[in-house]
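Batch job 17 of 40 flagged for manual review because the log was empty.
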Amino acid sequence: MTCDTSMFSNLGVSFALSEAENIWLPILKDAIRGELQPVYGGDRRWTAQVDAPVLIPPSRRDLRRYVNPMLGIYPARGCPFTCNFCSVIKIAGRQIRGQAVDTTIQSLRAAKAAGVKVVMFTSDNFNKYPDAAELLERMIEEDLRIPFFVQCDTQIASQEDFVHLLGRAGCFQMFVGVESFQRKTLIAARKAQNHPELYRDIVQMCRRHKVQSHFSNIIGFPEDTPESVDGHLAILKELDPTVASFYILTPIPGTEQYDEFLSAGRITETNLDRFDAQCLTWKHPRFSKASLESLLFDCHRKFYTLGRTVSMAAESFIRNPFSMDALVSLNQPLFSRYSAYRQRHPMSGGVGLVRRDNAAQYARFRREVFKIDFAPLPKSLELSQADSELNGMAKLVVAR
C-alpha cells in the first residue's frame, strides 16, 4: 500500500505495507491463529537485499487454459528516477535491489519445464540491474531458449552491447517509457532523463539486434492539446517502433503528482477503480473526459494500421517462424484494434468478461461494517525513517 489506510483501523481489515519477504510468514502465522494485525510492515517498506524464493509456475494443466502461457519474473526492483506520475518508486523504492542470479535461473528452468512459452521480466529498469549481463550470459550458456520481454529506460540508447546481449539471450521485445516528444513536458513531469532526439537511436538499435521496440506513450499531459496529440502520433509513426501503447495521464494515489492534483482540487473521479490509465480522472484544461478517452482509442487505431499489422507479422515470422513470440507479435496489433473497437484498453485483458458479482451486492456490507458507500480519496503514506534512508542510497542519475 502506498496510501493512508488509517480510516479502516479497528474495522477488521489488515494491510501489508512492506515487501512480502519481510512479512508474509508472520501474516500466515497470525491468520492461522485468527489473530491478524491491522498493519504489517509499517516500520519498513523495503528490504536492503532481496531474498526471493524460486518461483513455482502453474501446472501444465492450468497453463493449457491460455493461448499464450506467460510468467512474470522479477529479478530486480526499484527505479533511480523521480518521475512525478509513476508509482514504481513508491512501491519498489529508488534503490535498485536484485535477487540472486541463480534464483532467477532456477525460476526460468521451472517455467520452461512447466510449459511456459514467454517470460516477462517485470523489473522496470532491466538495463540498470547490476547483474543483468551475468543473468543473460547464464541464459545463453544454458541454452534456455525461452522468449522474454524486458522493460528499459531511455538511457538504453547508449548501451548497444547490452541490447546485443539481450538479442542473443532470446529477448524479443523491449518496453521503453518514452511518454512524450516534448522536452518541456518531460522536465515538468520530472522525467528529465528522457531525450526525444535519442528515441530514433533506440528503434534502430533494437532493429539491428532483432529486438522489437515497444514505445509507451502518455496522452493528456496538462500542456497537451488535440493538435499536439495528433503531432505526437505523427512523429511516433515516423520513428516506426515495432509496438506502441497509449495511456491517459493518471495521477495514481501515492505519487507526487496525485498529491499535487488532490491538494489543488483537480481530482474529479471518486471511484478508485477508474484510476486505470483509460479514464480521465482529473480536470484537464483542454480536454473533456469523453474527448480524451475517445482520443486514446483513436491513437491505437491510427497506429496499428493494416499495413503495420502485416509488417509486424512478417518481421516476427522471418525472425523465428511459428514461434510463440511471433504469435505474440501478431496478437498485439489485432488485439489493440479489437480493444479500441470495444472501447477497452488492451492491457485490461481478455476478449470477453466473466462477471462473478456486482458492486451493488456489497453496498449493504460496506455501510454496515465500514460506514461508507465509497472509500474517500486517500492521502499518500509517508515513508518511514528506514525507507527514507534506503531511498537516499539511490545513485544520482545525471541526464545527458
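Reviewer: the log was empty due to a logging misconfiguration, but the result itself is present. Residues 52-391 form a domain with the pyruvate-formate lyase- activating enzyme fold (CATH 3.80.30.20). Unflagging and moving on to job 18.
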